[in-house]
Write a structure and sequence with these properties.
Elements: H1 2-16, H2 20-46, E1 59-61, H3 69-77, E2 82-83, H4 87-91, H5 106-121, H6 125-128, H7 139-143, H8 151-155, H9 159-167, H10 171-186, E3 194-198
Parallel strand pairs: 1-3, 2-3
Helix pairs in contact: 1-9
Length: 206
């Protein structure tokens, strides 16, 4: 995590050079991500049994971008035996959802307001990529908490971070944290037979 954060901030400052709005957006985003990681780690320290909970035969959807993997993910997500990380969970993972709070909680409401603002600013966003607060989220969202995610590159011009992401990042450590994150998300009792996961980036990690 520390290596990714250092690469990210250096590349943001020296290469992306965001304007005032971009700097504010970056500060808001990465403060949230760092705080989310802190709370996940804190919860695991308080409840170490989270790390022993089983994850059985997760399904990974992989494929090149813009080839229909998102709609396949959405279709398979309709199966009650599948559990996907949702968009709001990946942005606001704390506190961990329970069956009683999963559909209605403060985190979800906050992300819903933020999405409404985003769609007003970018009216054709959902034409390019359908997304709602309850959409199944790609693994990119979880990988953000390890500061090793292609999502960063979709938002800012950071060639040195891209080079590190492709050639220097510890992919195994990121996938280990990915597993920890899934265990954390299921620790509140919102479970299914298997996790349903999706990201084209997994092609690089096989």
């Amino acid at each position: 995590m520390a290596s990714g954060l250092k690469r990210l901030t250096k590349s943001l400052e020296e290469e992306a050079k965001p304007n005032a709005f971009g700097r504010l957006a970056a500060k808001t985003l990465y403060t949230r991500i760092a705080y989310g990681r802190f709370r996940i780690e804190q919860e695991i320290r308080n409840r170490p049994e989270i790390l022993t909970s089983p994850i059985t035969e997760p399904v990974f959807i992989i494929g090149m971008p813009r080839t229909g993997t998102t709609i396949l993910h959405a279709l398979m997500h309709e199966d009650a035996e599948h559990r996907s990380p949702l968009a709001w969970e990946c942005l606001q993972p704390y506190p961990v959802p329970t069956p009683e709070t999963f559909a209605d909680n403060g985190q979800r409401s906050q992300v819903e307001r933020e999405f409404e603002q985003l769609f007003r600013l970018v009216p054709d966003f959902q034409v390019k990529h359908h997304m709602t607060v309850d959409s199944p989220q790609e693994c990119l969202g979880i990988n953000m908490f390890d500061f090793n995610s292609f999502q960063n590159l979709a938002q800012y011009y950071m060639p040195s971070y891209l080079d590190w992401f492709n050639h220097g990042a510890d992919k195994l450590a990121t996938m280990r944290f990915h597993k920890t994150s899934l265990r954390y998300l299921q620790s509140g009792g919102v479970t299914a037979k298997r996790w349903l996961l999706k990201s084209p980036v997994h092609l690089m990690r096989l």
